[in-house]
Each structure stands twice: as C-alpha cells, then as structure tokens.
Amino acid sequence: MSAQNAKLPRWVDYGLIPLLNLTAALLVSGLVVLLIGENPLEAVYWLVQGSLGYSEGVGFTLYYTTNFIFTGLAVAVAAHAGMFNIGGEGQAYVGGLGVTLACLALDHYVPWYVTFPFALLGAVLFGAAWAAIPAYLQAKRGSHIVITTIMFNFISYSLMAYLLVEVFKQPGSMQPESRTFLEGGRLPFIHDVAGWFGIKMASSPLNLSFVVALLACVFVWALIWRTRLGYAIRTFGTNPDAAVYAGMNLSRIIIITMMISGGLAGLMALNEVMGAQNRLLLDYVTGYGFVGIAVALMGRSHPVGIIMASILFGMLYQGGAELAFEMPKITRDMIISIQGLVILFAGAMEHMFRPALVRIFTSRSDDLGQEA
Amino acid sequence: MDFLQTLILTTDSAVRLSVPLLFACLAGLYSERSGVVDIGLEGKMLGGAFAAGCVAAITGSAWLGLLAAILVSIGLALVHGYASITQRGNQIVSGVAINFVASGLTALLGQAWFGRGGKTPQLPNTARFTEITLPFAEPMRNVPVIGRIYSDIISGHSLLVYAAFIAIPLTWWILYRTRFGLRLRAVGENPGAVDTAGISVAWMRYRAVIIAGILCGFAGAYLSIAQSAGFSKDMTAGKGFIALAALVFAKWKPLNALGACFLFGFLDAVAIRMQGTALPVVGEVPVQAMQALPYILTVILLAGFIGKSIPPKADGVPYTKER
Amino acid sequence: MRGGWNRREGLINGDFILHLDEQATARGGDGSGANGSGTGQSADVPAIRLVGIEKRFGPVFANRNIDLTVAKGSIHGIIGENGAGKSTLMSILYGFYQADSGDIYVNGKRQKIPDSQKAIAIGIGMVHQHFMLVENFSVLENVVLGVEGGALLGKGMDKARSELKRLAEEYDLRIDPEAIVEELPVGLQQRVEILKALYRGADILILDEPTGVLTPAEADHLFRILGQLRDQGKTILLITHKLREIMAITDRVSVMRRGEMVGSVHTAETSVEQLAEMMVGRHVLLNVEKTESKPGDEILSVEHLTVIDKRGVKRVKDVSFSVHAGEIVGIAGVSGNGQSELMEAVAGMITASNGTVRINGEAVDVTSKADALERRHRGMAHVPEDRHRTGLVTKFPARENMILGYQDQKKYGQGTFLDLGAILKETEEFMVDFDVRPPDPNLKAANFSGGNQQKLVLAREMERNPDILIVGQPTRGVDIGAIEFIHKRLIEMRDAGKAILLVSVELDEIRSLSDRILVMFDGTIVGERPAGASEQELGLMMAGIADTSGVADKAATPSADTVGAE
Predict the structure, then answer these.
(1) Which of A131, A279, C50, C520 has the most CB atoms lying inside 10 A of its own CB?
(2) Does pLDDT of C293 surpass 60?
(3) How large is the ipTM?
(4) Which of B194, B196, B201 best probes binding to C when mutated, by most C CB atoms within 10 angstroms?
C-alpha cells in the first residue's frame, strides 16, 4: 500500500495538504522576489492590500475570480469523467463569438436582460461546440483528448484572429476588435446593481456574470453528485470498465461531459465580452483557461474548493497589478510565475507532503486496514 | 520572381524555421519514448532562449550562451522529472506548470535585470552563431539546380542548423543501435520489463528527460542567439506546441520527425512568403489558415484519417511496482 | 490485503496454524531438508535458505516470519491461496521488494538483494505471472535487455543469437529470435521469459503461477522443460495455487497461508487433500450439498456466437448452448480460452461479430451494439469475473456501488435526479441479507475485504431476482467462509427456479456446483458432460481433446502422465 492511497483525515486531505502546497509555491515565489532584490514581505503586503484592502480592489478581485470559476469548473467537470480538458483556453475564446453575435444582433433593439439569455446561450453553445469536436474524435476515433484540445486552442487563435481582422473589425479602425456594444448588449456592473438598491459601491468591472458563476457552481455540484448523468460521469471517470459493465454509453458520456465542460469555459466570455469589455477583443483569454487547471486541482474538482481557489487566483491577479504599480521591478509576469509554481506544487507535486503526513497521522490511528 | 527562385528562398527559410522544431521535437521524442509526456517543451525552450540571450549579452560569447541555455533547460527538465518520475505526479500538469513558470520568470527577470520590456540587449554578431558559408558555395552557384540547392539551401546557415540536422540521424542511431536506445524504448513501452531486468526505471527516465533538456536548450539558444540577436518576451510563440504536434505527426520516430518538422517549417515559410498573394483556384489564403494548418493536420492524423499515430504504451504513466 | 474484520478471523485461526505446523514437523518436514531433494542427488548446501523474512505493506503483513529451505537441483513448490503471500516472498527473493527483516542465504552465502540486478548476479532468475516483456520488441531484443554486453548493440546481439540457439537445443526451447513478441502465442511468450532467465545464467529459476495462462498441454510441455532443467542441476521454485501441478512436478512443497509458512513436506509423502487442508486451514468442502436439478423452460439460448477482439483475433468461435430455469450450467476451461469474451458478449459488454442470443425466447441484438443495460431490462444479471476491474467502482461507497448497472431504475429517483434516500435504504437491506461486513453503506468499496466485496456484487445482482444470472469466477480471491456462503446462495437461487451460467477456471468449483458442464478450448465448446464427470476427463477436454472415450473409466490420477497426448 503506497502512501498515495493511505487514508488521511478529510481535513488533512482537503485542507492541510492544499495549504502546504500553496505555502511551498509562495515560498519559492518569495525567493524569486529576493532574487530581483526586493522585499518579499513588502510584496505580500501590496498583494493583499491591492486585492482586498479597498472596495474597488475587492471588486476587481471578484471580477477575475469570475473567470477562474468558469474555467476551473470546466476542467473539473471533465476531470470527473477522467478526461483532461486542456482546451478551456480555446473554448472560452470561441465562446466569446457566441456572446458577440448575440449582442451585436440584439443590442440595438432590446434591453440587456433580453439579450442576456441569448448571450449566455451563445457562450455555452459555442464553447460546447468547440469542445465537442475533440470529444467526438476521442469517443469515436480514439484520438487523445489532451493533444487534440491543445491543437484546438491553437486553431481557435487562428480562427478568432481571422474573424476579428476580416469580419468584426470596424471600417477605418486599426484595432482588430468588434464594435462596442450598446446598452442592450452590456451586463450591468455590480456597483450599478447595488446602486439600484441605494447601496454605494466603488466601481469595478465586476458584473452580473459573477452571479452566473456562483449559479454554475451549484449547477455543477448538483450535476456531479445528485443526477444520473453525474453518476455516470463519475463512474466512467473512476472506472471505465465498470461503466461498460453498467451499460452506460461511453461515447455519449464523453461527448456530453466535454460539451458541458466547454460550455462552462465558454461562459467565461460572458464576463469578459458582455460584462467587462463590451466588445470582442483579440486574445482576451490570456491564460485564464490554463489557470483553470490549477484552480480545479487546488479545489479538488469540488465547486466549493473551486470558488476558494478562484478567489486566491483572483487576488493574485488583482494584487499583482497593484504590486507592479507599487514595486515596478515586480512586473505582472511575477503573477504568471506564481501561477506556474502553484500549478507545480498543488498539481504535479500534490503528494509531496503526503508521505510525511501519513506517517504523522497513521502512527496515531493504525486500526483501519485497507484492501490492497 | 521566377518560380524556382521562390521555391529556393522558401525552402531556405523553411530550413531555418524548422530548426527549433527539430530540436524540440527530438527532445519530446527522447522524453516520451521513455514514458514521460512533455508538454513543457515550450517552457524549456523559452528558459533556454532567455539564458542564452542573457549570458551571450554579458559575456559576449555565443558558446557560453549556448551552455547557459542548456543548463537552464536541464534545470526545468529536472523539475519536470522530479514531479513526473519521483513524485509520480500528473505529467501534463507538470508540463503546463513549467510553461507558466518559464513564461513568467523570463519576462520578470528580463525586465528586472535589463529593463527593456523583457528583452535582453541586442547582441553583436560576435556573440551570436552566425551563418557559415560552406566550401565551394560560391563557385557552385552557377551549376544548375544542384548548385543552387547547395549554395542557397544547404550552405549559409549557422552551426546550430547543421547540429539540428545531424541530431536526427544521431538520434536514430542511438535509439536503434545502442544499449541506451534499447533500454529507452523498452522503458517507454513496459517499464516492468526494464525493472525486472535489473535496470533502474527512474534513472533511465531521468536521463531521457535530461537529454530533452539539452535539446530544448539548443532550440532556445537557436532562437535567441542564432536566428535573432537577443531574447524577447515569449519569443517561442507556441513553437514548443508545434514541435509536440510534429512529434505526434512523426509517430514518435526520429526519421519521421525530420519530415514532420520540415513540413511544418515549410508551411510557416509559405505563410510568411505568401501573405497577401493570391493563389490560383483558391484565391488568397488567409495567413491564419496557414498558421493553423500544422495543428489541423495533426488532429486529422490523430483521428486516424491518414494513418494511425500510436504513442509509446507507457507514455504518461508513472511507474509503480505492481503488488 | 484484508480488512480489519477479516484479520480478526485470522487470529481465531491462529492456533490452527500452529497445529498444522506441528503436523508438518512430525512428518519430517522440518524445513532444513538439505537431503530433501527428490532427485536424490546429494547437495549439502541448500540453494536458498530464508530465515525469518517479514514484509509489511502499511499495517498489513504480506509475509510474517517466513523460513524456507530449497535444496539444490530440486523442484520446490510453494502453494497457497490467492493473497497468501507467495508472490511477495518471491519478489523479495528477486530483489523486487526489500524484506523488512530476515536473512537470505543463496548457496550458503548470506546475501542482501537490494534490486533485481543483484538477484541476477547471484544466479536467480524469475518468470513473472504477468510477463515482463516488451511486446513490440523482438525475442532477441527482449532477451538481451539489461545484459546487452556493451554500449553498442551489434556485437551483443550476435552473441545472444548464437547463445539462444545453444539454449534452444539444450533445453528444447525452440523459438525464432527475430519474432515480435506480441505476435507470439502465450506459451511461446513464456518461453521467452524462461530464455531470458537462462541467458542471464540463472541457476535458480522462480516461476510465478506459470500455468495460469496455459492449456494443459502447454503446461505439460512446460513441466517437461522444468524437469530437464532440474536434471541439468538447476533449482526451480514453482509458485502456484493449483494442487495438481504440485503433485505432478515438484519434489518438495511448502505451504503458505495468510502470509505465514505453514509447513514443508515431501511431495511423495503427501496428498492433495492434506495440502488443501494446510492451504485453507481446515477441511475443504469440495462437494456442495445439493439435490438433483429440475430444469424448466429455456431461459438463455446462445446460437453460433462468434466474437472477434480488437486485434482481429477470433476469441469465441461459433458457440451454441442453452441454459434452462432451475439449472446451473458450468463453463470450464483454462483461462484465456474465450470464456471471458463469451460471457462479456452475452452480458452486453462487448459486441459479437455473429450469432444470436435469446433471453426468455426473445432475440437480443448482440452484433450491432453492446448494451448491458438492455440485457438487465430483460431479466439478466451479471456478476463479472473481476470485481476490481469491472464489478465495482472501488472508490465509491457501497451505496453507490449498489446501483451500478441499475442506475436507470425508477425506484432510484424519477427523471434527472437520483433519490439518495431510497438508494441508502435499499443498500442497507441488501447488506444485511448478504451478511456484508461491516454493514456500512457509506464505506468505500475498497475498504471491504475481498469476500465482502464479492458479496456486495452478488447482492446487487442476485437481489434483483433475475431470470438468468451470469456469474464469472464467483469465489476468486475470497476466503473460505465466504466461498461456502456464495456457493450456498447460488444453489438456493437455482432451487428457486432461476437459470445460472457459471464460468470458472476452478475445476473443483465447476464440478461441485454445475448440473451440466461445458468445456471451452480455444474459443469453442469441445463438449458437454454431466455433473459427475471426472476431473481427468474434463482436464483432457480443457486441452482440446473432445473424444475422451476410454479415459473416463480410468482412475483419476494427476493429469501429468495422461495429458501427454498433444
């Protein structure tokens, strides 16, 4: 019985280990800060101050959090089916196409709340469709989903660049971007919503997509642990042979799961395109899809964990911007490095501290033997 | 411009463009043939390119730059190896992490040390690998066809280009004619067989991962101190992933890798050259379509529509002794 | 290996082990038998002597205070049930694991064996149960792997080629060195493993369950090879759980149970019954009490079923049979002769390329799609051969395993959502009825012992009251108490008028449960025999010999001397 399978108390598995992994990542990041001759503690101060220290900062933090929740959920849903969807980047990008088409078509005629369901549907459908092709190829042709989704990320960059330059670009403009949506194509900001109820909040790009993200968490929780489909997804993800034995349709599970995953990734575009930017831009996804991997890993593919991990990454993003302003030597690239380190320690080396912890905790409770 | 001239120029540029792909693709080949999936090729190349740019700028020596590139790339490879082999972690996740760390750190340190928006200082030719003219290139130029091919395509590249093209047959020879190659192929197919033969699976895989590091160092150095005159932020621009696609396309075989990398390099060269020119029948092909073509071709290959690409059996599977 | 509950049972049996130890000692099997070689040649120093070997995996002892002495130039059997610790012990000897404590002496010299390299260096070779071959390599490449004889392959390969030729002639181990391993039949793949060991100069050869994948004829050939190797002075350790093999080939036998060495005896001085008793710790009930069957309507009918696997190999060839209500039809055969594929095709896990399957007289689509759910809707239930691989999701709690395959039933919730309360309640009932311990529906399946895991699967399938139950290897890796329980439940189900198709590689199980016995060999059913068919007759059929007339009357002796007909 290897240490990886040994039983640990739940709070160690879901609390202490992620915390230790995170600490390790942050310690190494601290060394990097030292390397460029700055004070890591000061950096931490600005990071926290910038992300949580004032109301506008909190707004920005939650705005970034929204993106991470969507991409994190996308990775998590696929992971429950034992698949690695590394294509969240492309699915989120293409999802923006759906949002944009809905907004461009409707913003002249109707208020935002009429456009909104169409934009939401557009985001989901386009994201899902972009994930459906690799899923189909995996299900029917046996091509490995990791490789195909990576390829589809790059194909999406080319596709979207083409569309932005050749189709959406406004005559006379040099910017490869769509026209800015009118009121009917803009999601209300949370500070506006608060204003309707007489609450004053600092303005930030935080918008109604955040609520959609939280609802998506509830949706994923119910899907995975309360529905027949979720049961099938988990069965397939943990033991595909048992899924065949149970008479589940594997191709169907692969394709549906990936489409849900892609749809969730696509929803990220709601936040960026309809919520914050109000137009379709080049490369607005910038790594959110990849960070979703880290979010899902840290959150152990559970919606509650994903929310917490997303807030953490939201803080890094927002605090990192503030940090770069206060300590110019620490550019925002620092945040990319920290993300990498978190992915490394919380993901690839997640069991590093396990053997030691197993030793600590099993010496006390040695009574539960396990099946080999 | 006549057709032959265009073809020669495009081919020449394809040779240059395929070099980083070749190094990275072979790097992936060693790693994956040993059973360690490597999507961190991009990050290792980037780290190598940055190190080469820095050291060449400071010391003025291209050779020291290359050495630095190799060392940094090996360092990243060892991190990947530790996570994948010793910790038995998820190799894809580890690769993603390497890419992030390399992308962030090179830009951060570049800015902190040189303050030029992530660029390293412009290198003089003495600190670069410059073009070499092969013997008789000039007199040969007048010989029809063959002469042009020799003087315009084969001659006139930097040392690293020749190194890349030598690395292909060398890799073939190592893989199929040496003890190390036999064990490498075995450990990627059935590590249990290697273990019971009394060979350390971990040490085999570490060596493969280190070789991948060395080759990515070459690829990175080529980018920053041979092809260009300095490092710039995110200068690999997805080449590590094209190399990965080429590896799949080459079915994890060294001689095929030459074909795949050259094909993808050629597509890139054509895309650059053809920008804005209309082709007969199809008209003007959008540059983005050309850029996406390597990925589309790989997807089609993976789907088994043109042959079948099957990875080494133990690729991506951490080795644990069975009970 | 076993859960907490079973370990308690192990303690209860503790005094029994002691008792048997005394018995073994009384017979002169004191474990130091330097002169115990069956070949009678005198070898003063034993080839292997193990003293006090212990090995723990986590809190579980795989090996506990093991002493073992193996004489030079002998074939020494090590027998024990699945999970008795035989393979672990041999892996320690081969340097694959390190013992936590204890000493190893090889040819009288104390050795530390930290890795396989060392084991090879001191002349120990091993043929693993799951072959350790690189499948897309040639025979030659596999043989030289690890002993290439230099950094470059060229020379070493040439040397190996001629050395292989020599070995082939000396030991009758002929094989084409350039053949690709994955294209060879299993018997030949095993030959490659033996050649690997010999090429490395092994004097001591360990074979771990070597006949599990072989037909009796192939097994017999293997035994002849082993006999020759012994005559040339090699020492052979044969690990098996098959009593017949021990009796047929070994000079001495050591019995293991629950990680402990129960005793060692001369093969010539023991009997199958005695060994069986030592293995399981008490008298084995080889015969289950049951009444004459009263077959009713035909429930399952299979006609001309043919299954071709992914690699294009015909696994099941034009098989036809039927199962009636109130009878158990057993399918005997050496594993790998198409039983698994037959069962999976009938149960809807894989598609057949040809044939008809009828359940209750109605035809099912077996060729265009594999749909296990549809089979269940028609009254079929299926206990798969391998509970870990297919029958359970071991990471799921018992309650989630209890609906596996029945997840679409209305009683577990209307529409999209599952009714967790209903599932929990039913799981509790099933667990009580099948005496699953501990009866905790929230415990992960992985944390139950093997026997209780099997009971979980059986409860799930049998409680549905199916018309036809397909059951594969119902007692594999299950402790003796659970075996009795399971056999009893199967007979009860038959007596309740249900049809049962039983597939097992344990001939004893087939013989004691079945009302009719079908024997499979190489994808075909070679014949049908009534419940009383002799072991020997069935053994011949398992080797592919359909005509057993004239053999059936002979006394049932170990198969080795009769199966020679190839």
Answers:
(1) A131
(2) yes
(3) 0.89
(4) B196
